[in-house]
Design goal:
By secondary structure, this protein is mainly α. 67% of the residues lie in helices and 0% in strands. The chain has three helices and no strands. It has helices spanning 3-13, 18-25, 29-37. The relative contact order is 0.21.
Length: 42
């Protein structure tokens, strides 16, 4: 399973939005979205 799939699955299991996850780890919602779509891994 790819990073993007794992990230999205785990985020949803915890009931977090992309914005909430981003706030917890210090990145923007857009960054989380890019990670989940596989656009960027950095």
């Amino acid at each position: 399973m790819a990073f993007a799939d794992n990230l999205m699955r785990m985020r949803k299991e915890k009931g977090l939005s992309q914005e909430a996850l981003g706030a917890k780890i210090g990145v923007t919602r857009q960054t989380v979205s890019k990670w989940e779509t596989g656009v960027s891994h950095s």
